[in-house]
Amino acid sequence: MSAAIELEEGLTSRTLLAMLFSSLVMMPALLWVYLSTGIAVGTIAAAYATMLIFGEIAMIMMSPLRASELATIRWGASIAAGYAAGFIFSVYMRKSPITKQFGIAENIPTWVVPLENSPAIVKRMIWHPDWFLPIGIGFASMGLFLAASIALSFIARELFIEVEKLPFPTGAVAAEIAISLSGGASDRYKLFAISTMITAFYESIRILLPALGLVLFGRETILINPIHFDFTLNIEPFIPGATFGITTNPLVIGLGFIIPDIVVIWDLITTIVSYLILPPFLIGTGIYPYTPGRPMLMPGTILGAWYEPMLRFWLSIAVGVLVATAVVPTLIGSRQIVSALKTFFSLSGEAAKKAGVLSGKVSLMMFIGAMLIASIIAYMLTPLGIYFFFVILLINIGYSFLNTIVGARSAGLTGGLFTIPYLNEVTFWLTTPVPSPDNKLSYWVWFNPFINQALEGANMCIGYKAAALTNTKPMSITKAHVLGVIMSNLVGLVVAGLLWYVYDVPSRFMPAPSYPADALLRSLFITRQFGVFFRADFIVGGFIASSILALLPRLVPALAPYTGIGMLFGIVAGLLDMPSNSYGIFIGYLFKKFLERKMGKEWSSKYMMSVAAGIWAGSSIIISLATALRFVREAISPMVY
Fold first, then answer.
1. What is the pLDDT of residue 635?
2. For residue 82, which of 631, 477, 484 has the smallest C-alpha distance?
3. Total domains, the chain
4. What is the mean pLDDT of the chain?
5. Fewer CB within 10 A of the end CB, N or C, for the chain?
6. Cα 248 to Cα 588: distance, rounded to the nearest angstrom
7. Does residue 5 belong to any structural domain of this protein?
8. Is 6 within a domain?
9. 208: in domain
10. Rounded to an integer, what is the distance from CA 174 to the centroid of its chain?
11. Under a CB-based contact definition with an 8 Å cutoff, are residues 424 and 532 in contact?
């Protein structure tokens, strides 16, 4: 444990004020934009905007926030800005013609959403008694999985921050912004400020100008495509089935400045091979999905020149690769991992408190205890036999631990959170009865909120990395996370309830464009029609090939700089991410190499993170401003337009 340096408390009254601002001001705007446009504005933008606003105000008032406070604000504000409006989607699932067509709507349990003829649904009242049980169950499951997430986060922190010392690039960016805004490094702050202003100017053209046009004239003025330039239809006559584009989002391009070179290079190679070179040859075999005339992605659907092949062909290979990223490094480093865990589990309560962490024993007991309670409640809701109880334990304990390991390692290397997709769904297919009206439990199990393997432990390691770089107690991030979850759920429930009371969802003013596609995907899973997207031979093949690649550095040391786990995560990114994002990251990488060549390696190692931090900060503040403008426009549109 690296606790030699005296760590600072990051959760202060000023931190809490910033989190309240993010929850009460930023989150309603993000939620409105999502429900009215289908655009899921990342809470990270709200977090960085909150950091900038409070950091600059504090500097103007001659009382700069400490780096530890700013690092805690970044994490707590992002969680507090999360728009918790799951109950609205549950209502849509109950009423949607899509779920009715699949025979699902009438079989959703009332502990998830009231019946369609309930006054709670008819009059759109979240405070109706029929909502008490669904909301109570939702908060109970949230509390249990929050405890389990925190416990796993400290285990993952020990493995990937203390032992493997992975870079966690997005956490490093947050730390750089915190250090700059705290006045800790004036030369780096100047570079950060310049980078922020340049990016903000660009973002003003890309997303602020369209928002202004929408507010002032009721029509967007687009000079730069706000998502990406999609050239798929342009190259289709020459390379059928191929897809190509370049993102315009600086948040994505900025990743090229901070992600390890090996990940960027293999991301690019995989994207080119998978979505540009191979499609024309694979189409001829009849195994590669191809429908002429489609762009890269068709929002609100599961269609697109990239999306369909990704789901039906490359996804299975990526699953095999992701399993290899969990299994092989664990086996290779088993001795080191066991040694680190022994030290972690032998940590005394006093030493853990001084280091600002939970001890290994406490973390393990908290995780197992929370998951056992959740599993027992899950079985009580859907008692499908004692065999199924062990399936619930496998998902809640086994899968959540496995995905935390995969996710934390991917976040540590790439900044992105990759986990093994659809583990729950495949397990349900293998262990539960085919849904039928005669067995309602076969439907209910798909809505059971106490069965969950997608915990937040891996994600929290990003905050812990920022804490480590700013001498902040890790427990400050933990406490901010807990408070942020409480804020987002309580405020989100009130805000979403008020919006739903005023406007139905979907409706003219809140069409929720993403809901139909989400409902269709959910229906395909429940009725087992999504199973055609998984191919066991591809999964096994991807696992075997990836395991060999992961072992190459040990077998042939000369190949270590070009292969290994970093390579595998680059391959996963190339298979699962939109090609436009992969090319955008490579553009950022080229900018980084250009600066390195002009300014030198020493300058790069000292200041490159400041450039990346400025890019993210400038983009975040303009995204937040544009979101607020869209919120204003949508709020006044019933009166004006």
1. 62
2. 484
3. 1
4. 87
5. C
6. 11
7. no
8. no
9. yes
10. 16
11. no
